[in-house]
Fold this sequence. Notes:
This protein is α+β, with helices and mostly antiparallel strands. It has one helix spanning 52-60, and strands at residues 20-28, 34-40.
Amino acid sequence: MPQHNHAPIRICPNCSGFASVAIATGVRLRDGSRDTVPVNCQTCHGIGTIARPLAVAAKAV
Length: 61
Ligand SMILES: [Zn+2]
């Protein structure tokens, strides 16, 4: 019987790995493109993964 030995889950539970996003401000720049603001996840600080004990603690809350 095969044993599944998965790597410990380290993906941030707060952002599911999408740690850094660009949010449009609604303002258009001179070249017509949208002005964006980069925002990082506050839990993992833009990394997307966190230490295993932190992930377990975050899930319990
Ligand atoms: Zn995160």
